[in-house]
Amino acid sequence: MHLAQRVDYYKRPDVEAVIDILLAKTGRLDPIFDLEQGYRYPDVEKAIGKDSYGAVELLEELFDARILDSQIFDMEIRCPDCGSPNISTRYLCPVCGSFNIKKTFLMEHLDCGYMGPIVNYGDPLICPKCQQPLVEGNYRNAGSIYECADCKKQIDTPFVNHWCRAKEFKFSFENAVYQGKFTYFPTPETKEDIDRGIIFISPITLIFESLGMGRIENTKVMGASGVELTFDVGYEGNGHKYYVDILQGKELFGELDILKEYGKINDAKVEAYLLVAPGMDEKATSMARSYKMSVCDGSNPNEIGVKLSDALKGKGLVHTPVKDSSKKDEAKKNEEKAPEIKSKSRWKV
Ligand SMILES: [Zn+2]
Ligand SMILES: [Zn+2]
Ligand SMILES: [Zn+2]
Known about the structure:
Helices cover 31% and strands 29% of the residues. The chain has helices at residues 3-10, 13-24, 42-48, 52-64, 188-196, 201-210, 255-268, 282-290, 301-314, 325-337; strands at residues 32-34, 38-40, 68-78, 87-92, 101-109, 115-117, 139-148, 154-155, 159-164, 169-172, 177-186, 214-216, 220-222, 228-230, 233-237, 240-248, 272-277, 294-297. The strands form six sheets. The chain has a five-stranded mixed beta sheet. It has a four-stranded antiparallel beta sheet with strand order 6-5-7-8, with no helix packed on it. A hairpin with a 4-residue loop joins strand 9 and strand 10 (169-172). The radius of gyration is 32 Å and the shape is elongated. The two termini are 32 Å apart. The model is unreliable at 325-349 (pLDDT under 50). Bound molecules: zinc ion (ZN) (3 copies). One zinc ion (ZN) is lined by residues 79, 81-82, 84, 164, 166-167, 169.
């Protein structure tokens, strides 16, 4: 997948949340086993506000989009009758079918060659065949066997069978629902993007919120030309309304990219900030300047964040504590809820 397409994914809050979790967890996301729901990804569920199916759906989508790669973590056995993962595995006696089988250790008496279960030797240890006491060096441990507690037959290879604890349903491995469960981690391309620094939406929102503005839902604007234009994100408050577009790539952006954005902002007749990483080339820089565009460029998100914050303060916006107390409580609650997903990708502004 091309970088431009990956950048569109990074603008989604659920994708930002997954990458945050990966960064907080040394880059790997293992499933955690739960007797009710089977393997699941609780951190992802919490961060995106969805159930275990929703979390898996998102991870699979990101795998298909090559944002994430995966590796088999374990196979999950589920009941073919009720779907429960709360399954017991039983070894059965191939003779009588009993699951009541015992592991027994075998001992060989080297002097006479007798081999049998350790219990046959008694205590103290005496060979049941030649009646000689066992002494250090004339016997050896010969491994273990299973013995059926019901029919007393020795078992070399037991049958494997399962039992559903939820509905007490017996089933064989042929009928079992047996599915791979995966560990997820960033693809090399995503890893590169992370190392370069991804411009996520929520740190931008934090900057606007600290200046008394709030995010607006609708970022579509009808242009003077009659074309509907969509910005990445928008904010309103304190008598201001701003839209924000994000350009991020590997190389410096050129005149054409800036011209395209200029055309869009000019047609929309709105105030808009353009965040550009890793920056613009010389021609693009002087073009943006001559068109008086509000561009915050930099090699990494931190630098861009500082520029954006300074630019907004230059517009007369000052740091305002959040007035709406319910919002504040909510922010505080979120902080308490998920302190472990504080990411190092966060901007420090
Ligand atoms: Zn069942
Ligand atoms: Zn048996
Ligand atoms: Zn013996």
